[in-house]
Design goal:
There is one protein chain. With 360 residues, the chain is α/β, with parallel strands linked by helices. It folds into two domains: 2-166, Rossmann fold, CATH 3.40.50; 170-359, Dehydroquinate synthase-like, alpha domain (Up-down Bundle), CATH 1.20.1090.10. The protein is 46% helix and 17% strand. The radius of gyration is 20 Å and the shape is globular. GO terms for molecular function: 3-dehydroquinate synthase activity; metal ion binding; nucleotide binding. This is 3-dehydroquinate synthase.
Length: 360
């Protein structure tokens, strides 16, 4: 079994990790156990968990509608009320079983109910395994604005079982793959080279790459837990990616994007900007763009779309004194934080993305 041991938030993965939950429950001895799921994980993942961990037979399941649109304070209020009505006290335990929406929201619910009850995360999507599993970020969206309300608090532990990935459609696997590609860009060309060949259709072969991605993020968080410098690099591609995700979510003429789909666009745009402002090699920019577009369908952006996306940048959490600040790269694993980018260059990046086929 793989493990990352920490004072709080230790991560256990791969073989027999789910069986460890029995020992953890016996150690915690909670007064009541609640399992938070969305409608998808209640159907596809909860039966597997209950079959493997008999101590959960009397747990109360709380379920909310799946999707980013339900990652709201209103959903939290419903869950807080359900906890209260079902006798939850300060010694109760909340197990968050699901993707990043479930673990983000569930962690926030647990961290605020009765000023904090214990919680365990069991991520069931690739995105949640390689991203939300580490860092202790819990929260909800404010309207369409991503992760504006929240707290940083690690769960008691995180259980990674890649068998849950068998329940996911390919689109969801690909969404998580975007974060693994990001880890390659900010960590090393060696990891990028290996992860770009990630066997999406055969996740059992990808266990080592998944675990390495978890370790990359954990190493960054351990060095900079308060996000004052190095941890900002985990937001590579997210400044524009989150704005794109929010814009597609609020625009009825657009099909909402999965998180990884929006971040994939953001990484292409940001790598182009890096080539213009920080001398990121143009040959590597071309290869990165080719790899990303091989997995993520190209999105269309009108001039008005781009202007509206740029307006949303003011809500990015890394901003300071009203300035929009980007993470840029000079090379693989060679980053610059707190970079200002002129709007004209953002437009130029969208032009590069739009016309890339013509340059091949």
């Amino acid at each position: 079994m793989k493990q990352v041991i920490k004072e709080r938030g230790s991560v256990y993965g791969n073989e027999n990790s789910i069986d460890l939950l029995t020992n953890i429950l016996e150690t915690l001895s909670p007064t009541r156990i609640f399992i938070l799921t969305d409608t998808n994980t209640a159907k596809y993942c909860l039966p597997y968990l209950l079959k493997r961990v008999t101590l959960l037979s009397n747990a109360k399941t709380l379920t909310f509608q799946e999707g980013e649109a339900h990652k709201t304070i209103e959903t939290c209020s419903e869950i807080w009320n359900s906890l209260s009505q079902n006798g939850a006290d300060r010694n109760s335990l909340l197990i968050n079983l699901g993707g990043g929406v479930v673990t983000d929201l569930g962690g926030f619910v647990a961290s605020t109910f009765k000023r904090g009850i214990e919680f365990i995360n069991i991520p069931t999507s690739l995105l949640a395994m390689v991203d939300a599993s580490v860092g202790g970020k819990n929260g909800v969206d404010l309207g369409v604005l991503k992760n504006q309300i929240g707290v940083i608090r690690n769960p008691y532990c995180v259980i990674i079982d890649v068998d849950f990935l068998n329940s996911l459609p390919k689109q969801q696997i690909t969404s998580g793959f975007a974060e693994m590609l990001k880890h390659g860009l900010i960590h090393s060309e060696d990891y990028w080279t290996r992860v770009k060949r990630f066997p999406i259709a055969n996740t059992s072969e990808a266990k080592e790459l998944i675990w390495e991605s978890i370790e990359i993020k954990n190493n960054v968080v351990e060095q900079d837990p308060e996000e004052r410098g190095l941890r900002k690099t985990l937001n590579y591609g997210h400044t524009l990616g989150h704005a794109i995700e929010s814009y597609f979510l609020k625009n009825q003429n657009k099909q909402a994007l999965l998180h990884g789909e929006a971040i994939a666009v953001g990484m292409v745009l940001t790598t182009f900007i890096s080539s213009e402002l920080s001398a990121f090699p143009s040959t590597k920019l071309k290869e990165i763009t080719e790899v990303i577009l091989a997995h993520f369908p190209k999105q269309e952006f009108s001039k008005n779309d781009i202007e509206e996306i740029i307006k949303l940048l003011i809500y990015d959490k890394k901003n300071r004194n009203g300035k929009v600040l980007f993470v840029l790269l000079k090379g693989y694993g060679d980053h610059i934080t707190d970079c200002e980018v002129p709007n004209a260059l953002i437009h130029k990046a969208f032009d590069y993305y739009k016309n890339f086929e013509k340059n091949i």
